[in-house]
Amino acid sequence: MSESQTPFVVELADVYKYFGNVIALSGVTFTLKRGEVHCLLGDNGAGKSTLIKILSGVHKADSGLYRVDGEPVSFSSPRDALEAGIATVYQDLSMIPLMSITRNFFLGSEPTKGWGPFRRFDVNGARETVLQEMQKMGIDIRDPEQAVGTLSGGERQSVAIARAVYFGARVLILDEPTSALGVKQAGMVLRYIARARSQGVAVIFITHNPHHAYPVGDRFTILKRGKTMGTFTKAELPRDEMIRMMSGMEDLERLEHELREFSAEGK
Amino acid sequence: MTEQGGAARTDERLLREGVIRRLVRRPELGAIGGAVLIWVFFAIIAGDRGFLSLRGTANYLGVSAELGILAIFVSLLMIGGEFDLSIGSIIGACGMIIAILPVEFGLNIWIAIAAAFGFALVIGALNGILVVRTGLPSFIITLASLFVVRGLTIGLTRVITGRTQVGGITDVAGYDTAQAFFASSLQIVDPASARAVTANFSVSILWCIVLMVLGTWLLRRTRAGNWIFGVGGDKNAARNMGVPVRRMKILLFMGTAAAACLVATIQVLSVGSADVLRGTGREFYAIIATVIGGTLLTGGYGSVIGPVFGALIVGMVQQGIVYTGIDSDWFQVFLGTMLVAAVMVNNYMRRLASEAKKKES
User: Fold this and answer.
1) Is B227 within 8 Å of A149 when comparing Cβ atoms?
2) Domain spans of chain A?
3) B:312-351 residues touching chain A, CB 8 A cutoff
4) Total count of domains within chain B
5) Domain span at residue B67?
6) Interface contact B356-A79, CB threshold 8 A
7) Top CATH class, A8-236
8) Which among A93, A106, A124 is the nearest to B236, CB-wise?
9) What's B285's domain CATH number?
10) What is the pLDDT of residues B130-161, one digit of tens each?
């Protein structure tokens, strides 16, 4: 990598965000390397959502720096972020159940052919592209004309990921893609995250499940009460340690202690 | 139909999907089947009493076409997730504009028609902007404009003319060309009749078919069509994907208002007069035809072909009941029953089309 280029696609430095008198983020620093899966972990209310909303252009940071490819940016809408190649896949808000896979895939960016009043949605072209893209990602769908509602939750997330990659996302932000899924389905989504990484996409994977984060993540950032507890590589952070940090060590130890007492009483 | 698609490999499991499931996905199928059934029913009951004659056919097609024009646009709006109750009073208001401007102020009727369309588009845009800005249900907003527009029509007409009906349109400038365009009819001598009775196929039938074709093209083959489905299916998801949700909704409200104005034009030019109460209740008929046509009341699913056949059903029953000799009071009983049945069938169909089969995994 040349000297002038930063190793980071996306970089947040010392970011603060307030909602009224609530401090949602206080001095968060976050970096994303090219082609890595960076897991963002934290309990509810830790500031994960606020952080990704800043990254995806929904909110603006009150102070701090946001850089993309080393250049400072200031996104005023999700559209801006999308144009910079930063795509966000929300858990439920990206697929319309009653519409077909093809129509969902291209919603808002439909391919057209013809000109003037004869400019039309290239339905056949769209259908073929979807089939191809699905195959590239190894997603097994029966028929691109079937309604998205007939897909399982994991398949839906996978289609959404394939769509973001197809539309040129260099950075993919996945907001809790596995939290509502069963074990098998979550495994499927994790596989597509790895697949997206192998296509050169950098992924920010938000989750509160360390068992989903650990197998696929390259680096891990743990948020707690609006602050980072640090960023770690997999080698630096054994799984147990990660769980302890996420939940707040004392809490979990106390809980374990209590539970032991319960079972002792039961005997 | 266009199943070859060019893709080399089709999945072998496609076969299991089955033809029925594939057909069930088409929202207009129920209404087409229903229309055939209703036609057969009246052909048997009242075939020898004139329902099957050319004249009878022209009769119910004319009634259905006017309703169909409304239903096409109501369906587009409903697929887009909204609702318009104000079209009935827009018909009344536009009819009055078309009648009063030439009769009272001596304007060419084409100018009056243009003014009426302008008025309709403004009301439609207002409906849309209010719905989009306030976030209130379109039911409430358009219920309000239903009353406001009707009240204004009655009030202003009385102030200007001192009456509630305006006639004498047949003598005004531009009437002949406008009449040919909006209210002429194809007259065919009924070969079955002894006294050379003519059947008048109204040009509104042609309007309805042309709009149906254009509407289907819009919905299934343009970007805007995809956006309409998206906006009605889940407006937040559509917005996240970059669809201009607000603009689409406002345009759809303008569409229903323009359709109401077209129907008003057709009515005024074929009857030769305007009445402040014209169009009363039409909004409900249009909604019923649309729902019978398979469009989902909650948005995101439907067609424009279905609602046109829904309108055909309503028209056939309304006119057909006369031929059976049954008192036409019973028509509304039928309409209500039909509506409930259609909604239940629609819900079932949608579940078949959009939910995962529970057997799998």
Assistant:
1) no
2) 8-236, 237-267
3) 350
4) 1
5) 54-347
6) no
7) alpha beta
8) A93
9) 1.10.3470
10) 999 999 999 999 999 999 999 999 999 999 99
pLDDT in tens, B174-232: 999 999 999 998 888 877 666 777 888 999 999 999 999 999 999 999 999 999 999 99
Of B11, B237, B296, the CB nearest to A96: B237
Tell me the mean pLDDT in the region B244-266. Answer: 97
In a domain, B165, yes or no: yes
Under 8 Å CB pairs connecting chains A and B tally to 103
pLDDT tens for each residue of B265-324 = 999 999 999 999 999 999 999 999 999 999 988 899 999 999 999 999 999 999 988 888
CB contact under 8 A, A97 and B233: yes
Q: Is residue B78 part of a domain?
A: yes
HEC letters along chain A: CCCCCCCEEEEEEEEEEEECCEEEEEEEEEEEECCCEEEEECCCCCCHHHHHHHHCCCCCCCEEEEEECCEECCCCCHHHHHHCCEEEECCCCCCCCCCEHHHHHCCCCCCEECCHHHCEECHHHHHHHHHHHHHHCCCCCCCCCCEHHHCCHHHHHHHHHHHHHHCCCCEEEEECCCCCCCHHHHHHHHHHHHHHHHCCCEEEEEECCHHHHHHHCCEEEEEECCEEEEEEECCCCCHHHHHHHHHCHHHHHHHHHHHHHHHHHHC
Q: What pLDDT is attached to residue A109? A: 83
Q: Is B25 part of a structural domain of the chain?
A: no
| CB pair distance less than 8 Å for B223 and A131 | no
Q: Assess B355–A contact: CB distance below 8 Å, yes or no.
A: yes
Task: Please check whether residue B226 lies inside any domain of the structure.
Answer: yes
pLDDT at B199: 85
